[in-house]
Amino acid sequence: MTLSTAFTRLFGVRHPIASAPMGGSAGGALAAAVSLGGGFGLLGAGGGERDWLARELPIVARAGRPWGVGFLSWAADVRGVEQALEYDPGAVMLSFGDPGPFAERIRAAGAAVIVQVTDLEEARQALDLGADVVVAQGTESGGHGARHGRSTLPFVPVVVDLAGPVPVLAAGGIADGRGVAAALALGAAGALIGTRFQATAEALVAPSTAEAIVQGRGQDTERSSVLDIARSSAWPSAYTSRTLGHPYLDRWRGREAELAASADAQRDYRADVARGDVPRLPVWAGEAVDLVTDLPPAAELVAALAAQAADALARAGRS
Ligand SMILES: Cc1cc2nc3c(=O)[nH]c(=O)nc-3n(C[C@H](O)[C@H](O)[C@H](O)COP(=O)(O)O)c2cc1C
After folding, report:
1. N or C terminus: fewer CB in 10 A for the chain?
2. 176: helix, coil or strand?
3. In testing the pocket of ligand 1, which one of 144, 153, 204 has its CB within 8 Å of the most ligand atoms?
4. Which domain does 42 fall in, by range?
């Protein structure tokens, strides 16, 4: 059984599954593999670093399948988006911040606008802007999201109701086909999945990161801004990120203002990274990390997720 939805029809893909535009780790090889597997692969362009884009865009564009590219609205500038548009993506996804400055350029280039939202206010703004797809992100998600976000299960159906005919993807805490089936049952037109795709053959992550995800447990993940502050990241304070445990979380939890004011502590962090005492990057992972137990090729994973979703829906229908 193929699961045809408004999302699969919009982009001409086989499965209602998109890989998240994970900044840095969703490179061209991962996005291409997801698209070749029948999903919709998204390149994680982050703020739109030119050299990274120049290296990764041709890889996904060469695959000749529908694909997209995601930017952080608070960090990107129009030139990065224009660089991506030269490669003719099917969609540009905008997350975290005001999508307004980019939407017209994207549409004029003939690409769809996907907006990731974390509350109803953002969902309304995305729809007013004419988003072609809305991604409803719950706080179970790995990586960054709203400090005061919503949980996926109750959030997705409200966004679906608000969006009317505009397809909605559910994101956050989905790592197997049962989660994809649940997203469809909530009225979403598919799932956008991040953490699960970090543990694939094509993700641009260190082997230690992939291994930490395979070993990681949802109960060990935590949303916090401590690691952004410690590594002197420019992420606005409205966003926290969900990661696996980390020594700096234990040391600074609840003392974020003190950490932000301490140049010494931030220097210590850089020294600890240089010595190899703490990993170069936090391990961003969502609550569904328990379900990640292997490192498959991404195309195989897409097919397995789709088959498992179809099976879960059939079983639910029979009972
Ligand atoms: C390592 C990692 C990096 C991410 N980077 C981005 C990003 O640059 N832009 C973005 O829109 N979302 C990013 N996200 C969030 C995803 O778009 C998505 O909301 C999330 O992965 C869904 O939850 P899941 O991880 O439980 O599947 C990232 C997620 C992870 C795990």
Report:
1. C
2. coil
3. 144
4. 6-205+292-318
pTM: 0.98
What value does the CA radius of gyration of the chain take, rounded to a whole number of Å?
19
* Residue whose C-alpha is closest to residue 70's, from 197, 209, 249, 177: 197
In a domain, 274, yes or no: no
**What angle, rounded to 10 degrees, do the helices at 298-318 and 28-36 form?**
40
The separation between CA 301 and the C-alpha centre of its own chain, rounded to angstroms, equals: 16
Question: Atom 5 of ligand 1 has which residue's CA nearest to it?
Answer: 22
- Number of structural domains (the chain) is 1
Q: Residue 87 C-alpha to ligand 1 middle, in angstroms? A: 23
Q: How far is the CA of 195 from the centre of ligand 1 (A)?
A: 7
Distance CA 2, CA 78 (A): 37
Q: How far apart are CA 92 and CA 84, in angstroms?
A: 9
CA 317 to centroid of ligand 1, rounded, Å: 31
Residue 267 in any domain: the answer is no
Beta-carbon contacts of 299 under 8 Å, excluding residues fewer than 6 positions away, are: 33, 34, 36, 37, 38
Q: What CATH number is attached to the domain comprising 314?
A: 3.20.20.70
**Residue 1: pLDDT band with limits 50, 70, 90:** confident
- Ligand 1 neighbours, Cβ below 6 Å, are 20-23, 25, 44, 46, 70, 72, 95, 116, 137, 140-143, 171-174, 192-195, 198, 284, 286, 288
CA of 22 to the centre of ligand 1 (A): 5
Q: Where are the beta strands (DSSP E) in the chain?
A: 17-19, 41-46, 67-72, 91-95, 112-117, 133-137, 143-146, 168-171, 190-193, 222-224, 239-243
Q: What are the pLDDT digits (tens) for 142-171?
A: 999 999 999 999 999 999 999 999 999 999
